[in-house]
From TrEMBL:
InterPro entries documented for this protein: Homeodomain-like_sf, Myb_dom, Myb_TF_plants, SANT/Myb
UniProt source species: Eruca vesicaria subsp. sativa
Bias-annotated ranges (Polar residues): 228-237
Single annotated GO MF: DNA binding
SMART domains, per database record: SANT
Record lineage: Eukaryota, Viridiplantae, Streptophyta, Embryophyta, Tracheophyta
GO cellular component, one term: nucleus
Name of protein: Uncharacterized protein
GO BP terms in the entry: anther wall tapetum development; pollen development
Keywords: Developmental protein, DNA-binding, Nucleus, Repeat, Transcription, Transcription regulation
CDD domains according to UniProt: SANT
Domain Myb-like: from-to ranges: 9-62, 63-113
Region (Disordered): 214-237
Amino acid sequence: MGRPPCCDKSNVKKGLWTAEEDAKILAYVAIHGVGNWSLIPKKAAGLNRCGKSCRLRWTNYLRPDLKHDSFSPQEEELIIQCHRVIGSRWSSIARKLPGRTDNDVKNHWNTKLKKRLVKMGIDPVTHKPVSQLLTEFRNISGHGNSSEPFLRNFKTEPSNNSILTQSNSAWEMIRNTTSHESYHNSPMIFTNPTSSEFQTAFHFTNHSNHPLNGATSSCSSSSSSASITQPNQGGQAPVTTFSWSDYLLSDPVLPLSSQTQVVGSSATSNITFNKNENFNTQGESSSQNIASKVSGTCHPASSFVDEILDKDQEMLSQFPQLLNDFDY
DNA sequence: AAGTCACTCAACCGCAGGACG
DNA sequence: GCGTCCTGCGGTTGAGTGACT
């Protein structure tokens, strides 16, 4: 038996809000304050809206402290940096941007920033250059031979065409690819971005002196990506020093600490997170899933997750202020 | 001028977690 | 411990609109 609906949906208005409805919300808040949204249909006469819908209207549009102008370059850069570190935790990102809502940030990311990164050859999920992802994928998939049909689907020359023609994320494709058959059938074409494109990209994502640069997380996004690497500057070949593929393909008997080196753990950061933030739930299950698919055993993946958890603890212990900035 | 397409963004949906009785 | 209510969150949808053919 499921949970009953929050209101009688057949009797409730949906869709865009009118000025009159907005006025009723404002009047209700002025009298009763924010909260108890479920009481609105009873207390605000003539407002035939679900309380949940009223709360959303207030939160995303009517709140007096909201900005309604377009995002500044500084705000956009902050969104990108935050997304690189914590992924699609829009409410957390929005708290760093006064006057912006999670919905604003999410929409702006999906409509502008994600596309911008893709155009620059940056995977918007991992924030790594697509070429680097492909290199790593070759390493873990055993498709290092360029004569493989899969790799022939990837152009390596710079092109004016879009970087990713059919996917928003190279990593998405890699995640979704579970057999050689699908590799071979993949119609996607990847191209290497030019150096200038990379330089433009890293204007946003990798200032060498940017205080955010050292910030790494066990889960760079909500996806299964879990590599802890820093993109290189200026279009040079990126150097992966800590990749989940290391765990998937390395000898599980050897101590992991001797096989990997984590970058950024000694750097400073002003992107900070609450200690209660659970970065590992999705990444853990996903990486284990990938591990099962790729290696047929879960040992390397669980070691990988353990290592990530350790590194998270290490990072947080080094930067106590990390525990305070994001409120949940 | 009309039709189509792509884009934006407000709003909806389902789920999860905390508070409370 | 359990059920209910409320709130918050992230993903998704679809109406509106402008650009393009």
